[in-house]
Write a structure and sequence with these properties.
The chain is an alpha+beta fold. It is 40% helix and 22% strand.
Length: 335
């Protein structure tokens, strides 16, 4: 797609840009999956090397009606993914127009270029939505607060996943590891220069399916929800303290404990378990599934001197690709 260079037809106040650009990145949940929906805390890690860029501009095509748009994804996305993303984009743009008082205008074209694999628990949908929101704000010359951007991304996330906690919508724009709880965030103190290795199992998970499965299980077993959320909260707070105090063995142990919690709830898979076991065998301090479950990725904590061995073992155990996220390279400032 060739983006247009003219915003002819828009009122002067809307003609701040001919092309708007927005960017976001992937994230991984360290601890707190699922429990965060019930008000528990979650720890999230930005993955800046997995980025998504959105470009929004005006087309020379004749619009069929106010607010008409065309949407293109780079790469070779499936037809189902394009359809789902397009439906969410229409909802997102409609909400942006409503909030910002934007009406009419020529045909809008959006191009999305993403390096984040879909369905892996890395925040692909939230990052795409954030990049598009920022591209629209840039195109229309609007200044969005972080809260306004978050609320717009949540509109799309709730459509894609059902009841979204909001952690993804915050984390895909974060510059540092963060604590998320009930819509509020704070930057995490980091007392150690280790690293995380994220491994893609090659199998897509389904957050919506996992959330529904867990909720049904809670309904069948009285007290199960309280036990799950209580244990998740305990592990997450302990992990936060270990990260701040520079206790990597403690942090790693809590990661593995959280994987055991997810596995007991039926949210892991044989492939994921094999990856976790391989990472631990190779010297990782801890490893767990990350994201909603039923597929997706594993995240492992390692000392820098063990990173090569852990990464190699993850590939031997079936990982299709891996990424290394050093804590030292992240900007540890308040968001």
């Amino acid at each position: 797609m060739t983006l247009p260079t003219s915003a002819q037809g828009l009122p002067g106040s809307r003609r701040a840009r001919s092309v708007g650009i927005g960017r976001a990145h992937a994230k991984a949940i360290l601890l707190g999956e699922h429990a965060v929906v019930y008000g528990a805390p979650a720890l999230a890690l930005p993955i800046p090397q997995l980025a998504v860029t959105a470009s929004a501009g005006w087309s020379s095509h004749t619009a069929d009606g106010p607010g008409e748009l065309s949407y293109t994804m780079t790469g070779t996305p499936s037809r189902a993914l394009v359809t789902q993303a397009s439906d969410g984009l229409h909802r997102l743009i409609a909400e942006f127009r409503r909030r910002e008082g934007v009406t009419g205008g020529p045909h809008l074209e959006v191009l999305l270029d993403s390096a984040i694999p879909h369905g892996r628990g890395l925040g692909s949908s939230a990052a795409s939505s954030r990049a598009i929101v920022l591209a629209l704000a840039d195109l229309f010359g609007r200044e969005l607060t972080e809260d306004a951007a978050f609320e717009l991304v949540q509109t799309a996330e709730n459509m894609a996943h059902g009841r979204a906690s909001g952690v993804d919508a915050r984390a895909v724009g974060a510059a540092a590891p963060l604590l998320f709880q009930q819509g509020r965030t704070e930057a995490l103190a980091v007392g150690w220069d280790g690293l995380f290795i994220v491994a893609d199992s090659g199998t897509a998970g389904s957050t919506k399916e996992a959330v529904q499965m867990l909720r049904e299980g809670f309904g069948r077993h009285p007290g199960a929800q309280e036990r799950f959320v209580g244990r998740a909260t305990e592990l997450t707070w302990t992990a936060r303290q270990a990260l701040a105090e520079g206790k990597p063995e403690e942090l790693g142990a809590r990661l593995t404990d959280y994987h055991d919690l997810m596995r007991a709830a039926g949210l892991s898979t044989n492939t994921i378990d094999t990856l976790v076991e391989g990472a631990l065998w190779a010297g990782a301090l801890g490893a767990k599934i990350t994201g909603g479950g039923l597929g997706g990725c594993v995240i492992a904590l390692a000392r820098p001197e063990r990173a090569r061995q852990v990464t190699r073992q993850l590939h031997e155990a079936g990982a299709v690709q891996t990424w290394v996220v050093p804590l030292k390279g992240l900007d540890n400032h308040a968001l």
